[in-house]
Amino acid sequence: MASMSNAETRLFRTPLSLEQALVQVDGLLAAGRWSDARQHCSAILSLWPDQPDALLRLCRIAGKTDGPAAALDRIRRMVAAQPGLMDVYAHLGAALKGLERTEDAAAGYARAIAIAPVDSAEIHYNLGNLLRTTGRPAEAAARYRQAIALRPDFPEAWFNQGVALRSLDRLEDAAVAYRNAIALRPDHSKARINLANTLVKLDRHADAVPHYEAALALGMDEAAHHGALAGALETLGRRREAEAALRRGLLRWPETTEFHGLLGRILSSQGRMIEAEACYLRLANQPSCPPDILISLCGVDSARGDPDRSRAWCERALEVDPDSEVAMRNLLLNLAYQSHDPAMVFAEHRRHGDRFARPHHAEAKPHGNLPDPNRRLRIGYLSYDFRNHAVARNLLPVLSAHDHRAVEVFCYACSTISDSITASFQHHADHWRPVADISDDAIADRIRADGIDILVSLAGRFDGNRPLVCARRPAPVQISFHDVATSGMEVMDYLVADAALCPRDSAERFTERILRLPSFYITTPLRHAPDPMPPPMAVTGAPTFGSFNNPAKVTGEVLDLWARLLDRLPTARLVLKYLDRYESPDLRDRTLSRLAAAGVDTRRVQLMASVDRMVSHLALYDRIDVALDPFPFCGSTTTFEALWMGVPVVTLPRGTMVSRWSAAMLKTLEMTDLIAGDKDEYVAIAARLAADLPRLSAMRSGLRAQVRASPLCDGPLKARQMERLYRAVWRRWCAARGS
To answer: Are residues 572 and 491 in the same domain?
Structure first.
């Protein structure tokens, strides 16, 4: 007998059965004693040559301790010794995978499966992992599916099936796979995180939250997961809980930029501007501050009514990132809050158009629309606001009254937010196109494929609207509607207004040709509004002025003028409200300090703060006698609400379209004596109204009927006017094509 190794000697000194010897090897493997386990396997093979269980254990040891090449050499010798052994080929596949020989590894796994198909769940799983990690998710998903068919209680196969399906954008299927993994292993924290992220992608934030919370409780305590939970809670409007999640995260990771940015946004949305500003400034002072933080600071100062500082932040954001279209759009919006030289304002809009729209002009493709001036027109409405929003309430009366024999209506919805108003748009549109999750290029391609004749871009500069879709010229005729200034884009052909919004002698400039309706403003009647009460002055004997406009419009210049009015009428009071924004100590201090500096006893000023249902909100107009319109960014929805409740509105139009919305409504109602030509006249009109209780009382009892009977509430009239407008510009395009 040849000389024996120590392991062989021990095996012969204490005679063991094969089973006992293998148990000893397994004990060594469990203890991580790989070298001793190898010696024992070698001893077993010297006594039982080519013993398959020992060979398999040596394959495992080789894969764990040897380099890939050495492991492959050992495993090949084992394959030669046991060519019909499934697990040896499985180890061969693993070794080849380690050497990045993907196709050879896949062949090894396939051979293993062919040897024992019924017992190959683990092999299918490993082959799926190989395919998934080498960019072949569809093939990987098929392998995981086979592994699951063979072993339905295989949580890791379900989990990786979810990973593969999500990379294929099969989000619903991925969510099912993750749920099955969790059902088999409730403590599978990665599956919970991945399921939560998938549900967020599906806009099912409420379903995602408990899985984020469970994953965190299971130890997935990473900054990204705290941030994802906070983001989902914020989307659901559960801002206090989102804030708490972020603050817990900040205790662990105090320097996380995303936490400070998101916390600032949540605090800002609650009107807690000082705290929000502190979050943003912590990042703004860093050399690598993201431009979106600077844009957020722009929003903070805008909400405070400080447009100068707001604009400075926008300019700095553009210095950091000249390609930030959001920063440039915020800068343009900021210009609306102050009076500026019209030439400068126009130049800034052209700067935006030249920088962000013009590069896409080359992408415009020839239009195949039939140039028939009399055929049914395809009208596309592009908006983020097909929901409970002022623009939706302005558009719905028109869209719901369209003559579908004359126009075929397409709605391109840039938001995933959906409510009862969204359902109304879906009902009245001929075609509903959800486009929130696709690029501007893809939206333009869809519009072009739909054969849209006239594309109407709604309120392009606001919120999440997509005006740069129009830069691709997806429709032959493009119209800006419900925006407050020029788009600055040469490819925007027209802008809809009326003679009050855009007088022909105005110095304001537009890249668009102005289309003037007989009257512009239209909205949905407030059918559930309470009946107007008598003016409060009839009881108190002293006038109460008020404004329920966004505080961003109530600049220092506006407050100074209101202070002049209060100085002229020493017994008058002032009520200000906008949602719950005046809960903010910063906003309260800014407002009251400015008024006090102008000589107003702030005990005469009431700052109200609450988020009310519409009926309760409208009932608050019973507390004021005369509504004061801010400037130069005047009211619109707020003006209509005041008039509907029988409260007159005093307005001061300036040289821009954005300052004339209230004046346009008042002209439609033939109430032009409420339109001031300058600040002195503004004060005089308000004072005159405050001294005329009979007129105020008559307005309370009769103004709603006057408004209801006016073009402001006549949707069918406005629909016919818009259709005539669409027909006119279409015929103009057809004539140009013919020439």
So the answer is: no
